[in-house]
């Protein structure tokens, strides 16, 4: 297990430190060099699966090809709708009845990889960003572990 973060003071880094989980803070300008470094660490630690959470950077083919079909991401919409950043805001602006949460494989295109698991989230007329975001996070915390288990079963 290894945590890699581009935020030195993130909650995840604090949790990793408290639980003696190896962690690495990486700040970079050159995305390819960063992905090369990440790939080296993933191989050093014999990592089987990369799980993105809050990694708001587009990864390069260096990492995608080096870890093909072993990088997953979670997105706060029912893909293929509302790809990219600001999904919850755009969902509310679109005045749709529902959205969702999607776990998918990472590819070179943003939020475009094969879908692993999804769950819908109903939108209420009085929803604000804050309360919709909280409901979406509850679903994220429920389905991300399910997606990881599916990967684990397929990987063995």
What can you see in these coordinates?
- This protein is an alpha/beta fold and 156 residues long.
- The protein has two domains: 1-47; 55-155, Rossmann fold (3-Layer(aba) Sandwich), CATH 3.40.50.170.
- Helix content is 40%, strand content 19%.
- The protein has helices spanning 11-18, 31-44, 61-66, 87-94, 129-155; strands spanning 3-5, 23-25, 50-51, 71-75, 98-105, 115-122.
- The strands form two sheets. The chain has a four-stranded mixed beta sheet with strand order 3-4-5-6. The protein has a two-stranded parallel ribbon with strand order 1-2.
- Strand 1, helix 1 and strand 2 form a beta-alpha-beta unit.
- The model has no long low-confidence stretch (mean pLDDT 92).
Q: What's the helix and strand layout?
A:
Layout: E1 3-5, H1 11-18, E2 23-25, H2 31-44, E3 50-51, H3 61-66, E4 71-75, H4 87-94, E5 98-105, E6 115-122, H5 129-155
What is the gyration radius calculated from CA atoms? 16 Å
Count of DSSP strands: 6
What is the name of the CATH architecture of the largest domain?
3-Layer(aba) Sandwich
CATH fold annotation of the largest domain: Rossmann fold
- Approximately how much beta-strand content do the residues carry? 15-25%
Task: List low-confidence stretches.
Answer: none
Highest CATH level, the class of the largest domain: Alpha Beta
Reading the helices and strands in chain order gives: EHEHEHEHEEH
Question: CATH H level of the largest domain: which superfamily?
Answer: Formyl transferase, N-terminal domain
- Look at the structure and give the mean pLDDT: 92
User: In one word, what is the shape?
Assistant: globular
Report how far apart the termini are.
17 Å
Q: What structural category arises from helix and sheet content?
A: alpha/beta
Helix count, DSSP H or I runs of 4 or more residues:
5
Query: How much helix is in the residues?
Result: 40-55%
How many domains make up the 3D coordinates? Answer: 2
Tell me the strand order in the biggest sheet. 3-4-5-6
The main sheet comes to: 4 strands, mixed
